[in-house]
Amino acid sequence: MTKKLLSVLGLAVLVATAGCLGGVQAASSDDTTTKTIDVSGSETIYATPDQVVLHIAVEATGDSASDVRDQLDAGAADLTSSLESQGVASEDIVKSRYDLAVRDRESGETYRGVHAFRVTSDDVENAGFLVDVALSNGANRVDGVQFTLSEETRADLHRQALAAAVADARGDADALADAANLSVTGVQAVSTSDVNYVYSGSVSTASTEIRESSVAVTATVSVTVTAA
Predict the structure, then answer these.
(1) How far apart are CA 6 and CA 23, in angstroms?
(2) Domains within the chain, CATH numbers bracketed
(3) Calpha distance 71→69 (Å, rounded)
(4) Residue 6 has pLDDT above 50, yes or no
(5) Interatomic CA distance for residues 120 and 89, integer angstroms
(6) Res 15: pLDDT
(7) In whole angstroms, how far apart are CA 17 and each of 146, 155, 174, 175, 182?
(8) Cα-flanking dihedrals φ and ψ of residue 168, to 5°?
(9) Integer Cα distance of 226 and 228 in angstroms
(10) Residue 122 region, left (φ>0) first, then alpha (ψ -120 to 50), else beta?
(11) Hey, which of 6, 171, 181, 217 would disulfide with 157, CB 3.0 to 4.6 Å?
(12) How do residues 116-129 score in pLDDT, each as one tens digit?
């Protein structure tokens, strides 16, 4: 549990709670002065990914720039059409990189090119199959596979994590107030940092098998409550 420092200005009272310290403040010893308690809370929610992002590419070499360009164009056309036939929308197959350069500068004869794509699909369970389809139809390189959350799911979990983090902070505030013979009377301020998302997964080759894991969504908030 997050440690919090409890200090009563003007009263010089230090209160320790079980595994948790917070801050109680008063402007003076006047009982009518508003006292505040500063606490923080956090929550982590684990969710099953509902989206997969494939980073795949067509790579080619040749003795001329036009030869390499033709190979890249043909591979890209095969790649996109094969993925679309498996239900991937054309707008979810996005070109992320295109390079064409001399590979052997001494002779000036050999060229190398890369046409890379970012492919997004909600068919998470068949991520490995989509990789195999890509590698069998134009692509010859896989730069990574990422399991993630759709924007709608991300927003929903974001709100859930924030609400739970605020509840965690409020519980600590109540405990601190009770230990100081006070009662929470309201909320003065609430702030939060960016919500963190941690993704995981694993890939094994053969007929490509990809095992998705969970996505951890963590929210942290700071809350200032008033007490009397």
Answers:
(1) 4
(2) 23-45+153-227 (3.30.110), 51-148 (3.30.70.2970)
(3) 5
(4) no
(5) 9
(6) 29
(7) 42, 34, 11, 7, 14
(8) -65, -45
(9) 7
(10) alpha
(11) 217
(12) 999 999 999 899 99
